[in-house]
Amino acid sequence: MRRHNSHRIAPHRERIRCITFDLDDTLWECKPVIQRAERTFYHWLQQHHPRITARYDLDALIQNRIDYMRANQHQAFDLTRLRKNWLAQIAAECGADESVVEEGFLVFWEARNQVELFAGVRETLLTLKQHFILGSITNGNADIHKVGLGDCFHFSVTSAEAGAAKPEKVIFQTAADKAGVAVGEMLHVGDDSDRDVIGALHCGAMAAWVTPEEQLQWEHDLLPHLVVSHVSELPEFLLRERA
To answer: pLDDT-based confidence at 241, cuts 50/70/90?
Structure first.
């Protein structure tokens, strides 16, 4: 597949009324954010709930969380609730005060929203917002206002709110309903070929795949309408010949 797949977006460009964006790994790199947030949370535990850190070092606590979340995949659409439930279990196991649930989650969540945007993201979103309804769709619990992008979007949708995560159709339909457009008038932009691209295509939306050149491998029958290496490339294709 060619990286700049503009020949596929051209026939559909005038149909686009709304553009939705995935957040993690599309607008910023997620892994270092989560790693830093986990360290911040652990240091807070050491100060306020040492019974937990006496039993678990950082790596062991993270592995415990991962194991818990894997065992409770039916709740994976609501990562906030899932993490709080895990914290409640850890508190009970270690004899820690139950205040760790709400207070500990807030410590993690504040750090989780301290992100470093990819270059040009904010400028690109503000440019596109002049021509389209912009929204975010995320399976995570990042907050567009906390990360400093609240003014770049008209709305946001989380999997917790929709009651289902990408690639389920309901989360894309929830976004279309919020935007007041038909699903077929929506272009979803994301890095995950399954959750973002195939999910959007299966529900009737258009899709743009954000992927670095060296990772360019497509393994599905359905094709994205546009492929870019960075969201800053989107205006070149979406605003061409647009009034």
So the answer is: low
> Which pTM was predicted?
0.93
Q: Spell out the residues 6+ positions from residue 4 whose beta carbon is closer than 8 angstroms to its own.
A: 227, 228, 233, 237
Q: What is the mean pLDDT of the chain?
A: 94
Radius of gyration of the chain (CA): 19
Could you read off the pLDDT of 153-194 as tens digits, one per residue?
A: 999 999 999 999 999 999 999 999 999 999 999 999 999 999
What is the distance between the alpha carbons of residues 218 and 210, in angstroms, rounded to a whole number? 12
The neighbour count for residue 63, using CB atoms within 10 Å, is 12
Whether cis (ω within 30° of 0) applies to the bond prior to 167 is yes
Burial class of residue 7 in the structure, from the number of CB atoms within 10 Å of its CB (0-12 exposed, 13-18 middle, 19+ buried): exposed
The contacts of residue 206 (CB under 8 Å, 6+ apart) are 9, 12, 15, 16, 184, 186, 187, 188, 200, 225
Structural domains of the chain, ranges and CATH numbers in brackets: 6-28+117-238 (3.40.50.1000), 31-112 (1.20.120.1600)
Helix, strand, or coil here: 112?
Answer: helix
CB 33 within 8 A of CB 112: yes
Please give the pLDDT value at position 240: 78
Collapsing DSSP to helix, strand or coil, 187 comes out as strand
Cα–Cα distance for residue pair 67/164, rounded to 1 Å = 21
* Cβ atoms within 10 Å, residue 207: 26
How far apart CA 42 and CA 108 sit, in angstroms, is 9
